[in-house]
Description:
The protein is an alpha/beta fold. It has helices spanning 5-8, 14-23, 37-53, 69-75, 95-103, 128-141, 150-162, 182-190, and strands at residues 60-65, 83-88, 113-117, 172-174.
Amino acid sequence: xxxxxxxxxxxxxxxxxxxxxxxxxxxxxxxxxxxxxxxxxxxxxxxxxxxxxxxxxxxxxxxxxxxxxxxxxxxxxxxxxxxxxxxxxxxxxxxxxxxxxxxxxxxxxxxxxxxxxxxxxxxxxxxxxxxxxxxxxxxxxxxxxxxxxxxxxxxxxxxxxxxxxxxxxxxxxxxxxxxxxxxxxxxxxxxxxxxxxxxxxx
Length: 202
């Protein structure tokens, strides 16, 4: 549903959602970024699936943080020995406030969560340094990253490791949450040449 920016700004307003629902009565409206309790529940189930498939102790779970649903879903399923590193891909987060919102009511200690700045100039902004990292990561690991979410997470995760912020010998599990569909738009907007599929580069 195309709309003006002034209307888009009301996307979280319940009256506006009701208005959209009246225009499209058969539509199932999904909150932007999947920010919903059902999304958190689904991510929580992902944690259980990972534990079945990767039967080793995980010291650090890592995810990109946009709306927060992935981080919340993971956080509520962590055991006492596990920590979450949530990489903030949006500029302008109030770190203290965001962390309080994540921890509040989750029955978890604050030291089990660390928020890491990873916006690299802002949401969806061009970063030659990040583009170079994405190509290098693809070549080394045969895994394609996007420049808006997962690329920033892995870029900053590698920096955290290099800087000694994660103890040597730790087991890290990074959740690749997708976002690859955004590469084409990013390339169009900035004239970049990031591959759309890993086979096109390898």
